[in-house]
Design brief:
The structure holds two protein chains of two kinds. Helices cover 30% and strands 24% of the residues of chain A. Chain A is an alpha/beta fold. In chain B, the strands form five sheets. Chain B has a seven-stranded antiparallel β-sheet with strand order 14-20-19-18-17-16-15, with no helix packed on it. The chains are: A alpha/beta, B alpha+beta.
Chain lengths: 243, 500
């Protein structure tokens, strides 16, 4: 009796998830974007595509770290040959550097807008367009109503949206499915070699609907995310394999 | 019913056109000229100059010797074709099938047209009168075949309307050059004393073919009607234009939308039929008070998708001021291009840059905000970071070169390098610490230097030595030193970007 009750609850939960914005887009398997252990934080261990994600940052350095992390996710979204749109106040991205994240920079269309209102309109229109792999918006202020509009736009089109908020005036409640905070941390090279290593970030998943927020350390190595165990003492033998 | 053809010969086509433009040229001799093999040659002569003995092909210097006050104008090679096409389109009022006959004639298929003017004589007179009124000197003939009409128009003496079936008789007294044959053959005929068609028309055909070739017989057959000849009629391009008058003046946005929708439907239906698409269109609203309101749109790709075009216009409908009401709407496709045939979608997931939805989205954004805000970047063959990429001119511009990824590059690049204070231990070593925006960063790890030379053929300046550094907090920066280390400290340190 108890097991059947648990089954019913699991079944109901499965039915509720799509209503809350979690969708499994690919029919076979999950929406794997190569995030490794982070995916366990999401319901069904699926990275939510066709939803809007919110990223917070406070400085130019952290904004770059966020961009790097988003580029990592974007690279697996764009693998299928899709194009994406990047909306921002002014282009600070250095297009050739995107290549090191396995993205063809010529497949990204940059839209530079000065007014927040225009940016939000363009982002909403872009999210409604089902021909895109992803839409990235560097939008500072996102009110609850705006975020709701963006969420409604993706419901039909299943485009994934990323809102990068650098230095927002206030951190308000939004209708975004997740909220992240990415900061860069000291890189390490194998065998204590000198020099700057691979990009390494502390990934904080502050909020996730129906999931388990958490904190991880991730590294971008050879076109893939690599999880670094919390205890930062890395076994040298393992490093040799990957490095 | 036998076919009837009309041939119109403009004796002074180009010079008449000059007189039409400048009426005072009527009373003075003038010629048109164009350079040929290093000298200037007369290409067209007016009546007065011709009377003095100036002819086509004469050098302008020789003509000036005959008439010192001769006026000379520049000729353009495609002038007569342009003129004839214009006149041919005008001639469609007389017959639906009009063809141009370069260099100086028109051909009309007038079968079944003449009775509308009460007979061929009146018909011919009417056309002639109209042309003379315009100032063109014309000779017109009507006959059963194109060849005979052509010959009579140019060489006929008094009777210009050849009755049905009599064209061969009419041709008999004419010289052989009336057959539109090569001048070499004409010369050979004249040499043999065959100065009239009647001299050789009854000769056995094999001997004519042997001596003068196939062409003479062919042209003779065409003129006498033994062989069919066709003409390629001029088809005027109908402008891509639709209009919609309204019974009651329209004042509401809904009314304007309905009008726009109807016009778009009509225009797009025609465009789709002709496999063409709109690149630019203008929607005009004529108000009762005589003023006109208009909105204009442009698209990235030719399209005849009504829904999409409507959306583009819809953004701008608010800007229309109906005032007392709009009584007439017009839609004009300013720029029309061939529509590439769209393949049925095989894979629904396909979502590259050539996606229709994407180009429609960009149309909407550029319609509302302006096309200058949308950018796409392609690689350029430069090592200098600011020049290593460039703006793509179009959404489907192919890559000329590949993106380089052999050296580490920062994800964010400052649009202008910012000066920083740096402590560096020894020359060509990475700095120990630097101060940026008032904050001291102690450098723990560093890579470099990577020297990038200034491209002297583009810009003068010093080279840059780039270092990728990481501070104690784990932030990664791209710094460079401009110029060499020296005692005078003429070098300067800059921060240029942030690594992820």
């Amino acid at each position: 009796m108890i097991t059947s009750k648990a089954d019913i609850i699991a079944q109901l939960q499965k039915e509720i998830l799509p209503l809350q914005g979690f969708k499994t887009l690919s029919k076979n398997g999950g929406n794997d974007v190569g995030l490794g252990p982070i995916k366990n934080a999401f319901p069904n261990a699926d990275f939510p595509l066709g939803a809007v994600h919110e990223f917070l940052s406070t400085s130019a350095e952290d904004a770059t770290a966020t961009t790097g992390f988003v580029s990592g996710i974007l690279s697996s979204l764009m693998k299928k040959g899709g194009a994406s749109i990047w909306i921002g106040a002014s282009r600070t991205i250095f297009p050739p550097a995107l290549k090191s994240f396995d993205i063809a920079p010529d497949k990204i269309i940059f839209i530079e807008l000065k007014k927040e209102k225009e940016m939000l309109w363009a982002m909403e229109e872009a999210l409604k367009c089902d021909g895109l792999a992803a839409v990235i918006g560097e939008i500072k202020e996102l009110s609850f109503t705006d975020s709701r509009r963006l969420q409604l736009a993706v419901e039909q089109s299943h485009v994934t949206g990323f809102v990068l908020r650098n230095n927002p005036r206030s951190i308000n409640t939004t209708a975004c499915i997740t909220r992240w905070n990415i900061t860069s941390i000291t890189s390490e090279l194998a065998n204590e070699m000198p020099g700057v290593g691979f990009p390494r970030w502390k990934v904080d998943l502050l909020k996730v609907r129906n999931g388990k927020p958490g904190s991880w350390q991730m590294e971008w190595v050879a076109g893939k995310f690599r999880h670094i165990p919390a205890i930062s003492i890395v076994v040298p033998v393992q490093q040799k394999k990957t490095g | 019913m036998p076919k009837r053809f009309m041939s119109i010969w403009f004796r002074y086509l180009r010079t008449d056109r000059f007189v039409r433009r400048q009426p005072d040229l009527l009373s003075i001799p003038f010629v048109l000229s164009s350079p040929d093999h290093g000298r200037v040659v007369v290409t067209a002569v007016n009546v007065l100059a011709q009377q003095q003995g100036i002819d086509n092909g004469m050098a302008v210097a020789d003509a000036r010797a005959i008439i010192p006050s001769l006026k000379v104008f520049d000729d353009s090679p495609d002038l007569s074709i342009k003129l004839l096409t214009g006149i041919a389109e005008w001639c469609i009022r007389f017959s639906p099938v009009v063809a141009i006959d370069p260099p100086d004639g028109l051909l009309l298929d007038v079968t079944g047209c003449a009775h509308l003017w009460k007979g061929e004589k009146k018909y011919l007179e009417e056309i002639k009168k109209r042309f003379i009124h315009f100032g063109y000197d014309v000779r017109i003939a009507i006959a059963d075949t194109i060849g005979s009409a052509w010959a009579i128009a140019r060489f006929g003496q008094n009777n210009f309307i050849i009755k049905s079936g009599e064209q061969t008789t009419a041709l008999l007294p004419l010289p052989p050059s009336c057959l539109r044959i090569d001048s070499v053959i004409v010369e050979r005929l004249e040499k043999l004393g065959l100065r009239q068609i009647s001299n050789f028309i009854s000769m056995p055909r094999p001997s004519l073919r042997r001596r003068f070739g196939k062409e003479l017989l062919q042209k003779l057959d065409k003129a006498s009607g033994h062989e069919e000849e066709t003409i390629i009629p001029v088809i005027p391009v109908e402008p891509y234009y639709e209009r919609l008058p309204s019974l009651e003046p329209i004042v509401t946005a809904t009314g304007i939308e309905i009008a726009l929708q109807r016009l778009l439907d009509a225009l797009c239906k025609r465009l789709a039929h002709e496999e063409k698409g709109i690149r630019g269109a203008i929607f005009k609203c004529y108000r009762i008070d005589g003023k006109m309101e208009k909105i204009e749109i442009g698209t990235n790709r030719p399209t005849c998708n009504t829904k999409h075009l409507f959306k583009l216009f819809e953004i701008k409908i608010d800007s229309i001021e109906p005032a007392l009401g709009i009584e007439l709407f017009t839609l004009d496709a300013l720029k029309v291009e061939e529509l590439p045939i769209t393949q049925e979608e095989l894979w629904k997931n396909h979502c590259g840059l050539d996606n229709i939805n994407l180009s429609e989205l960009l149309d909407r954004i550029s319609g509302k905000i302006g096309a200058g805000k949308i950018h796409r970047y392609v690689p350029d063959e430069h090592y200098w970071p600011e020049r290593s990429f460039k703006l793509a001119l179009s959404i489907d511009e192919p890559l000329q070169t590949t993106w380089k990824m052999d050296r580490p590059r920062p994800l964010q690049l400052l649009s202008k390098p910012e000066a920083i204070d740096v402590t560096a231990p020894i020359p060509d070593y990475p700095p120990m610490n630097f101060r940026y925006k008032g904050k001291l960063h102690k450098i723990r790890k560093a890579d470099g230097p990577e020297r990038i030379q200034q491209e002297w053929w583009l810009q003068q300046g010093q080279h840059r030595d780039y270092y990728a550094v990481e501070d104690e907090e784990g932030h990664r920066y791209w710094l460079f030193r401009l110029g060499h280390y020296d005692a005078a400290k003429s070098y300067q340190w800059f921060i240029h970007g942030f690594f992820a």
